[in-house]
Amino acid sequence: MILTKLKKASANPVLHEARPLLVAITIGLVLALTLTVAAAWRPDHPVPTQTTETSGSI
Q: pLDDT tens-digit profile of 7-43?
């Protein structure tokens, strides 16, 4: 039942011609989301560690 629906959908010439575009858009969205998440997780400035110079009295 599902296979016959898929075969009918793939036989649709409009969907068949638009499929490469849909695949490209999907890949682009996944790539953009991945890069956004990676950029959000990457610390731009490392956390300063406390050294003996900064822990002393002024």
A: 665 566 766 778 889 999 999 999 999 988 888 776 6
pLDDT bin (cut points 50, 70, 90) of residue 51 is low
The distance from CA 35 to its chain's CA centroid, rounded to whole angstroms, is 6
Closest CA to 42 of 53, 32, 34, 54: 34
* Distance separating alpha carbons of residues 32 and 38, to the nearest angstrom: 10
CA distance 37 to 15: 31
Whole-angstrom Cα Rg for the chain: 26
